[in-house]
Input
Amino acid sequence: MAAMAENYQFPQIGDEQIKLLERLSNACAVSGDEGEVRKIVLSEVRPHADVVNVDALGNVLASRVGSGDNRLKVMLAAHMDEVGLMLINNQGDGIYRFETVGGISASDLAGKAVWIGKDHIPGVIGIKPVHLAHGDSYQKPIDVDDLHIDVGPVAGKEKVGDRATFATTFMRLGPSLRGKALDNRLGVATLIELVKHAPPNIDLQAAFTVQEEIASRGARVAAYAFNPDLAIILDSTPAYDLPAWETDENDRYNTRLGAGPAIYMADSSTLSDPRLIRYMIQTAEENKLPYQLRQPGGGGTDAGVIHKQREGIPSISVSVPGRYHHSPAAIVRLSDWQNTLTLVAAALSHLTPALLASDR
Amino acid sequence: MKPLIQKLVETQGPSGYETQIRSVVRAEVEPYANELKVDALGNLIVRKGEGGTDGMKIMLAAHIDEIGVMVTQVDENGFVRFTTLGGVRPYTCVGGRVRFLSGAAGVISMEPLDDLSRVPTFEQLYIDMGYSNSAETPVRVGDVATFDRPFLDLGNRLVAKSLDDRIGVAVLIETLRQIKDTPHQLYFVFSTQEEVGVRGATTAAFGIDPDLGLAVDVTGTGDTPRRTKVRMDVSLGKGPAIKVRDGGMLADRRVVDWMVKGAEKLALPYQMEILEGGSTDARAMQLTRAGIPAGCLSIPCRYVHSPSEMVDFTDVQNAVTLLIELVSHPVIL
Output
């Protein structure tokens, strides 16, 4: 007799959850250096999970065993890392050359304040000032090699190899949230809530992964270790929902703010399992939740490596839409976050092995 | 064998949505299987033979998926924008017809081009399904379609969509039917999601953990008119091709020699294949777990990834004869 999750209460986003997201957003965790976020995750999930491990690559793997028979092993993955910068050359006088880690456009960098390392040492990304530009030199595209990070200098502890992120402080803007690294601290915050409020009908396998922004390296080994029956990946995907687009109907918006959780059908690395697509849509409609179908096309999530692990793992991604990802500040709607959390919680609470036995 | 080929190419199975073609293949192979299963990614896996002291575990793979398109947007006037599943080329789309899994159909056209000498981009293409607004248009974001083109029998040359790789599927089915005795455990894998990056074969190979892997897939040819200098050394009608390398792998030298010796023993025509771009399920097999010897038996095919791919029927029959010979005897690499 499977334990049905009839008395299961869907988790809610309140002040406490927003404060946690604020801490996660303000933390620095560029790919390969996720310690600051990992520390927060560990302290949040340890009291609730049955088993918590940090694996060799730095993934946090937290399991919560359900009750009753015929429980599916469900892997939920959210990446902890963010895109950022790495100091590569000390030029003296507090000036460093750097390279980008993950997908960042050089045009987003010039003039921005940054935090370096776990101590958040302040710096600024410098470029030749417009006063000194002549001819059309300042109209040319910016190259990362034209830029440097300047830390003052003070007797700082920064060194070559340290990572840097944009120095953006999280804040609430009416119905929206603004911050850096909301791709994917939103997913991390969502997954923390699901560990705290795991429905009893499944064995929940939470993977807080590393190195997603540089080809999903952490998720690959996490999926091997968990070997789940299916996987749901929690991420945040760009919204480019500007009102008009070259005066015609915007046909490449990817997702839209305020339209609810974005369900993936296809991106460059995954074709979502058709059974899971139908199930997520059905769950949204039965619970009267807004949802949107992310425009199929490019991009990718941890699903790309997870679904191909071992003998194959049926997978789907669900994202909170966000404007201006991989830039100093993104904007997301609080309602989209709540609806994403509710949709995934509702889907989990009714999952049975019958879904995977059904025709795809 | 032609009726089987026609049935296979006229069934739909875009990558990730192989349900229809899988059930057609399943009906063909079930009577011959010692064991049959569908795995988590939808691969249909059929075992034939119990193995023995001289036997190996051999994985034979042909993919059941085909290239197609997926809806990205239905605009307010009912025009349908799309992205591709697998290696679709824009110049093979214009004027073509597509059919959705629901049966709904449409025609692909394009926005007016500023420069007629240039190939349109996918952003300039759309599907017209004959409706005037988004509400009536019977598809939505995420729906998938395949190119719609009937089978054409030109005698010894066969033309159809999705001969890549339904012709390989037909070769495996025919081999399974005709094989009398094998010392091996033969795993016939009708794989999914090959066209988007050999994904199905990746997980099937992990599950089977074979000793030897052989893909049966199509390869390009160099026997058509061209003004470029590069000319591939494969022609229609000169026998099945034995892959030496492609864009994703170097075939195992021993597997290549095994196939060459088999063809020479039967005095079958064969040709050596060096393909510059693209790859097959053999790559996924070669790289599974700790690695296995792997190769590919290729069916020469003109106009690959167009709605009118062409193969030579004698090549196909010779591929079946060669494959039966190869897997009927102990393999010494």
About this structure: DSSP finds seven helices and 17 strands in chain B. Residues 197 and 236 of chain B are 26 Å apart (CA to CA). The longest strand of chain B covers residues 294-302. The interface with chain A takes residues 15-17, 19, 39-43, 70-73, 75-76, 81, 83, 85, 123, 140-142, 193, 196-197, 199-200, 202-204, 206-207 of chain B (CB under 8 Å).
